[in-house]
Design brief:
Blueprint: H1 2-7, E1 13-22, E2 25-28, H2 29-36, H3 41-44, E3 51-54, H4 61-75, E4 83-89, H5 100-107, E5 115-119, H6 125-139, E6 146-155, E7 168-178, E8 183-185, E9 191-194, E10 200-201, E11 210-211, H7 213-233, E12 246-251, H8 256-271, H9 280-293, H10 299-304, H11 311-321, E13 331-338, E14 342-350, H12 358-361, H13 364-368, E15 371-372, H14 375-385, E16 408-413, E17 416-420
Parallel strand pairs: 2-15, 4-5, 4-6, 12-13
Antiparallel strand pairs: 1-7, 1-8, 2-3, 6-7, 8-14, 9-14, 10-11, 13-14, 16-17
Helix pairs in contact: 4-5, 7-8
Length: 432
Amino acid sequence: MTADRLTNSNIRVGIDAMGFSGAQCYINMVDLATARGVDPAKFIVGIGQKQMSVATPCEDTVSMAALAGRKALEAFDIDPSEIGTLIIGTETGIDHSKPATAYVHELLGLPSNCRQFETKHACYGATAALTSAADWISSGRARGRKALIIASDIARYGINTPGEPTQGAGAVAMVVSENPRLFELDMQCVGDYSSQVMDFWRPLYSKYAFADGHYSIECYLEALAHSLKDAQSVSEDLSLFKPENLAACFYHVPFVKMARKAHTCFLEQHIDRKLDLKDITDKEMFTKSYGELTAPWLSINAQVGNIYTGSLFLSMIDFVSQNNRELENRNISIFSYGSGCGASFMLARVVEGAMDYAQALDPRADLEKRRKLTIEEYEKIVALAEDIDMNDGLAPDPARWSLKGNIFYLGTHNHSRQYGPQSMRGQLQRAG
């Protein structure tokens, strides 16, 4: 059987299950704009954001990843024993050596013969994990098991910085398997692009990232053009990439307006010229294409904000949750970008029956339950986050922010991170 698997290039592999878990608090972008003395339209229209999730000190890469993973497994009736690989893509690391997966592996009760590791490449890390897992399954090494891929991040730029309105927090979990129920990946035409650029980075000595915003947009669009061409170079049917033959186009979404820039670039690659949006014909073509293929799947991103590695996949959750059954059995395009930089462009097929899971995937009910913070409360949380990882410091208290659930970061004690329900906080110092 193993030999057959190793030689079988016809294995159908893709995303079998998904789940989202975000921070339980948020701020309204109008409130943030007012507090910063800017026109709210700068945030609402200029970058396309309506709300921004804010991670309390009790919510970190591990806690959000574990909750997202649990949701994916339970919603799609997958037993933890079926998972043979666990990978977390993140740029919000919790340790220079120990991967976040070590904690999540324990919290989810995954088997001991499940390999686990972390991938890092800015916002591209989870896509690297996704394609690695697909290759693992296609090679036959999975032995019928599935892979759990989790994109978990907290985007932090600091108070009153240019990047402040593009923050966010959340995790998207994906189970990758043979005969997937949501999206079947076309692993025969994945295009890649890499280049050493200084558009966004976070040195070891800094809690906040450094970014050259305008340059990063240029790098993003250049990577899109090159990775698309690379994917086309190995495809036997270039018509598959034509916008009119796609049901949806998904892009990395550091802020909602970036998807508009990305789709403009995508269309330009097909007409082999720059779009002139002042021209009526060009404007109508773009508006129709963007309005049908990309814009409908950005509503959740607009409420959550930037979640780095998970932003792309949050749009895909939005797509399924809207229950458009006429889009089943059709192709979609997926573009992932990570600063620094690395990128991939690929095609996938929406599996027949995928929309049966619309309700199970829809996170809107949970988003409505989030606690709205005042700007003063938000700024207090930012201040607390500065020292929350210090050894034997104040233990964060979930009750302080009325958090629900049973997986929290409870502080670092004796140089060891602590996770669990609120009842476990007795061994740590209680926060004031």
